[in-house]
Amino acid sequence: MFEFMRRLLSGYLFVPQSFNMKNYTELFPIIKKKLELHHGSHRLLHTLGVVDVAEQLAKIYNVDCEKAKIAALLHDATKHDDLLEQERNIKRYFGEDMLISWPKQLYHGFSAEIYAHEELGIDDSEILLAIRNHSVGRPDMSLLEKIIYVADYLEPTREFNSEKTRKIACQNIDRAVAIIAKSSLKYVSDKGYEIVPLSRQTLAYYEKYLEDNE
Ligand SMILES: [Fe+2]
Ligand SMILES: [Fe+2]
């Protein structure tokens, strides 16, 4: 029961990083092997791009670089794992109602958090939340969450990569979040994909940072 409550409250309580937690150098070969084995070189290249951008942003915003690199390294670790297994794990870990209104392609934020916590021993709540919320964000994100959300969108191999937004991300991360939230929502809508309520809430919270022409 305690563990379940901790997960529910983890967005609001600080859980300190464990002294036994693996560092980036120890995690890297594990994730490299998993991504290459199951997801091919593309997923690894994307992940390394996110690590790179996240590290740059962490330096700019005085965020712990090690945490940023770990969250970036793990954010898509379960992206192409079996969906039924992801669903089972999410229901077990977060409760039966967690997946209401979530399309299958977004399960991986939750399942990667579970993988990070249960398989790799990551118990830092900021890292776990940054992994969980990397796809659609949420209102009032921590700096680390914003860094991973932005880095996932702006890393060099992504089709959305934009030099202008990259510069904005280095100057005003909230404005970059707003631009990305708006652009992502338009992309999903144009494609006719299911829109997750949380993605609208993210944009509603951050759109005050947009300028008139954005
Ligand atoms: Fe992802
Ligand atoms: Fe990603």
Overall description:
This protein is mainly α and 214 residues long. It has a domain at 2-6 and 23-162: Hypothetical protein af1432. Helices cover 64% and strands 0% of the residues. The chain has ten helices and no strands. It has helices at residues 2-9, 24-60, 65-74, 83-94, 107-119, 125-132, 143-154, 163-171, 173-191, 197-206. Helix 3 (65-74) crosses helix 6 (125-132), helix 3 (65-74) crosses helix 7 (143-154) and helix 4 (83-94) packs across helix 5 (107-119). The radius of gyration is 16 Å and the shape is globular. The model is unreliable at 1-5 and 8-16 (pLDDT under 50). Bound molecules: fe (ii) ion (2 copies). One fe (ii) ion (FE2) binds at residues 46, 50, 75-76, 152.
Topology of helices and strands:
Elements: H1 2-9, H2 24-60, H3 65-74, H4 83-94, H5 107-119, H6 125-132, H7 143-154, H8 163-171, H9 173-191, H10 197-206
Helix pairs in contact: 2-3, 2-7, 3-6, 3-7, 4-5, 5-6, 6-7, 7-9, 8-9, 9-10
Bound molecules: fe (ii) ion (FE2) (2 copies).
The site of one fe (ii) ion has 6 residues, from loops.
CATH topology description of the domain at 2-6 and 23-162: Hypothetical protein af1432
Q: Mean of residue pLDDT? A: 89
The set of bound ligands, ions and cofactors reads: fe (ii) ion
* Class by alpha and beta content: mainly alpha
Overall 3D geometry?
globular
What fraction of the residues are assigned to beta strands by DSSP? Answer: under 5%
Q: Compute the number of strand runs.
A: 0
Sequence stretches where pLDDT stays below 50 over 5 or more residues: 1-5, 8-16
Helical segment count? 10
Order of helices and strands: HHHHHHHHHH
